[in-house]
């Protein structure tokens, strides 16, 4: 290969392996879409599988390293992998990471209060998140909105369903989510967007990418977002600010360096819990969708600063060496009144009160070293990746209670509480001071046994240590030298269809506590998956997967039993013999020129050792569809789209003044529409209609015997200008 070109990535299509070579002065992001690259006498015609989706106007995914660390196409990965690309994020006007995850195949959302939401896949909560492949665990109880980041800085989100203990150390059988940040573009580009919507929603975005040197080796990108608005919930307002900057430089030695910083500040005025589901007489409440359980002075904030450096060195033999480091600094705050219990139907009296003022600080460091590339053995070419990672997470949460017990809270009528003065807060005391250190080394190889047969084999060795002072009690939890094997077989039936089977072991530490306040032992078990993946057209992929997971030490809530000394914290017991079985199907990509599609169906049933269904707040079935079409001919300036998401019933056993009762949300469907009109090469306008038929549904069912309505019908209008 001439010295002025370097290895960028391996590209595979229809089971064929090729090398993409680009001029050294070009950026990896310069390759996009279907193209013919002419380099002297070398010609490569291929569906380009470069991972970055921003310059590919498609829902079709590119290569992914989230499952195995190897740059494999979706078809080559022996697990279910879905990607929500930049084009789909843009078409659906998905403003936050939570909005994106709600559209991801197989992922469901459950709300706890105004700011805390959780996501699940295959019947269990998702606990494993990554940024550009660096592990970022999410605190469970102390989440405080730590899953709501602005979407403007992300190129795409990759979701690997099933256990991913090979790279994360936590073999969670639900999913691992990888947020891939945007990178500098190969040429100058700038965009400004102004949007408005119902409930005084306002959104302003600016995005500038520019080369910093004449040869194009160094480039930078800056993104700024301000998003504000009231809510359909009474007395609730959100403000979000996001700033992101990254510099990328390519050295003549084949080394690529990225330096970046990200700042996000989320502020909610009037934050609070859900509304009570029952009156004091045991009957269901019937509040409208603006029902609130908050106060004028309650508030929440989440301030996070992330800095990162990512160094990649490309060797002449096709190997890539990577060193990446990330530092996160987070500050959290929540002061509020929680009204519990059941209001009298006539007077509104009788609810209990709990005032709290939380303040917290969290620092997190991630370090990751990897090496991956091809090697030859027995006359065939194979691939190998080895890596080591370490994550340190320091958390200090404090709480202040009212110095005098707090004022009287008055009545709660028609979904509104009486005005309540903010109490005089007492001294802040530490309630959770913890340091968590995870480390692990892994190796994974993709062996080409024969032209149609490949084996993916891997092993990880993990260490996990938690030092904690929990409400004054010192505790130390440690797990060392935990082995997590991974095995997959991929067989190419022909150039377009492959089948696979994979096996992964499960090792997942958990934050759930027994009645004494001790953490439960980690969940252990096995994950099996069998699937078929097919390239149905040039940019249209179909995937079908059958899966089963078996788990022990699964946390099960003990009815009406709180953690000792913590009446607001549910106690759990470990249960053996938990299983999840199901099927997933996905069709994604391009049906025809200008016509994009993302469609998926999921069936997942979780049961305990007694064959009773568990985790019933996660839907057993889901169907998601969104499609968009760029009109042709005289109407080519118009792009229209629409879709729907449907989920089956969710339910739980909630406390009622007359005892335990079943409450739930029946199956429902939410439909959306969009239209974008391009006035010129620079100016376009987009209209999104969400919840077109104004479907009423609950996002929260039974959390502390309360509920939360989903968002009513609303419109968003945005003007976009490209400079």
TrEMBL record:
TonB-dependent receptor-like beta-barrel domain location, by residue? 258-692
Q: Where is the signal peptide?
A: 1-32
Mind telling me which CDD domains this protein's record contains?
ligand_gated_channel
- Residues spanned by motif TonB C-terminal box: 706-723
**What would be one Pfam family of this protein?**
TonB_dep_Rec_b-barrel
- Is this entry keyworded Transport? yes
Q: Does the keyword section mention Transmembrane?
A: yes
The protein's name in its UniProt record = TonB-dependent siderophore receptor
Q: The organism sits in which domain of life? A: Bacteria
- Which key words are in the record? Cell outer membrane, Ion transport, Iron, Iron transport, Membrane, Receptor, Signal, TonB box, Transmembrane, Transmembrane beta strand, Transport
Tell me the membrane topology, using the record's own terms. Answer: Multi-pass membrane protein
Q: Which InterPro entries is this protein grouped with? A: Beta-barrel_TonB, Beta-barrel_TonB_sf, Plug_dom, Plug_dom_sf, TonB-dep_rcpt-like, TonB_rcpt_CS, TonB_sidphr_rcpt
Record domain TonB-dependent receptor plug: where: 74-174
- Recorded source organism is Marinobacter xestospongiae
Where does the protein end up? Cell outer membrane
Similarity-based family: Belongs to the TonB-dependent receptor family.
């Amino acid at each position: 290969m001439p010295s002025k070109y370097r290895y960028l990535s391996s590209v595979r299509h229809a089971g064929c392996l090729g090398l993409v070579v680009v001029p050294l002065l070009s950026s990896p992001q310069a390759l996009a879409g279907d193209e013919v690259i002419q380099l002297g006498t070398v010609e490569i015609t291929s569906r380009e599988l470069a991972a970055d989706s921003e310059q590919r106007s498609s829902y079709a995914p590119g290569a992914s390293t989230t499952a195995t660390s190897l740059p494999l196409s979706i078809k080559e990965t022996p697990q279910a992998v879905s990607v929500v690309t930049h084009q789909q994020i843009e078409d659906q006007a998905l403003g936050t990471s939570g909005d994106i995850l709600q559209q991801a195949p197989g992922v469901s959302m459950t709300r706890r209060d105004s700011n805390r939401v959780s996501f699940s896949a295959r019947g269990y909560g998702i606990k494993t998140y990554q940024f550009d492949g660096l592990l970022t665990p999410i605190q469970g109880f102390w989440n405080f909105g730590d899953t709501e980041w602005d979407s403007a800085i992300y190129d795409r989100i990759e979701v690997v369903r099933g256990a991913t203990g090979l790279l994360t150390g936590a073999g969670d059988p639900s999913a691992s989510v990888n947020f891939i940040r945007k990178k500098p573009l190969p040429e100058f580009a700038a965009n400004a967007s102004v949007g408005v919507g119902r409930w005084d929603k306002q959104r302003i975005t600016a995005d500038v990418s520019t080369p910093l040197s004449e040869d194009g080796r160094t480039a930078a990108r800056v993104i700024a977002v301000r998003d504000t608005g009231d809510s359909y919930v009474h007395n609730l307002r959100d403000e979000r600010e996001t700033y992101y900057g990254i510099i990328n430089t390519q050295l003549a030695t084949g080394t690529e360096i990225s330096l970046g910083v990200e700042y996000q500040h989320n502020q909610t005025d009037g934050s609070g819990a859900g509304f009570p589901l029952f009156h004091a007489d045991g009957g269901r409440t019937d509040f409208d969708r603006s029902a609130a359980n908050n106060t004028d002075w309650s508030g929440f904030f989440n301030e996070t600063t992330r800095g990162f450096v990512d160094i990649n060195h490309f060797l002449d033999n096709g190997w890539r060496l990577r060193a990446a480091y990330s530092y996160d600094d987070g500050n959290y705050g929540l002061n509020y009144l929680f009204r519990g219990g059941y209001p009298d139907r006539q007077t509104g009296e009788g609810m209990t009160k709990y005032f709290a003022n939380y303040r917290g600080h969290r620092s997190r460091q991630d370090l990751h070293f990897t090496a991956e590339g091809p090697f030859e053995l027995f006359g065939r070419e194979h691939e190998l990746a080895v890596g080591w990672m370490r994550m340190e997470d320091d958390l200090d949460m404090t709480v202040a209670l009212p110095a005098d017990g707090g004022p009287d809270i008055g009545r709660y009528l028609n979904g509104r509480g009486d005005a309540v003065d903010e109490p005089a807060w007492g001294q802040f005391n530490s309630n959770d001071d913890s340091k968590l250190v995870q480390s692990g080394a892994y190796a994974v190889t993709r062996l080409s046994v024969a032209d149609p047969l490949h084996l993916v084999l891997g092993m990880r060795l993990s260490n996990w240590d938690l030092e904690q002072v929990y409400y004054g009690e010192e505790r130390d939890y440690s797990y060392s030298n935990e082995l997590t094997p991974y095995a997959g077989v991929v067989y190419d039936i022909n150039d377009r269809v492959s089948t696979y089977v994979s096996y992964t072991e499960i090792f997942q530490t958990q934050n759930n506590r027994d009645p004494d306040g001790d953490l439960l032992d980690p969940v252990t078990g096995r994950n099996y998956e069998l699937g078929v993946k097919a390239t149905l057209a040039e940019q249209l992929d179909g995937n079908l997967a059958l899966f089963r997971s078996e788990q022990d030490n699964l946390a099960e809530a003990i009815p009406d039993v709180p953690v000792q000394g913590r009446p607001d914290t549910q106690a759990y017991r470990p249960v053996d013999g938990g299983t999840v079985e199901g099927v997933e199907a996905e069709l994604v990509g391009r049906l025809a020129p200008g016509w994009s599609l993302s469609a998926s169906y999921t069936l997942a049933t979780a049961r305990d050792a007694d064959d009773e269904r568990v985790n019933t707040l996660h839907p057993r079935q889901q169907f998601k569809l969104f499609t968009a079409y760029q009109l042709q001919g005289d109407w080519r300036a118009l792009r229209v789209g629409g879709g729907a998401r449907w989920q089956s019933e969710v339910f739980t056993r909630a406390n009622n003044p007359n005892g335990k009762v079943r409450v739930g949300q029946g199956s429902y469907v939410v439909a959306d529409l969009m239209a974008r009109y391009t006035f010129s090469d620079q100016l376009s306008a987009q209209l999104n209609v969400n919840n077109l038929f104004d479907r009423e549904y609950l996002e929260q069912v039974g959390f502390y015997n309360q509920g939360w309505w989903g968002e009513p019908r609303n419109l968003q209008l945005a003007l976009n200008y490209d400079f």
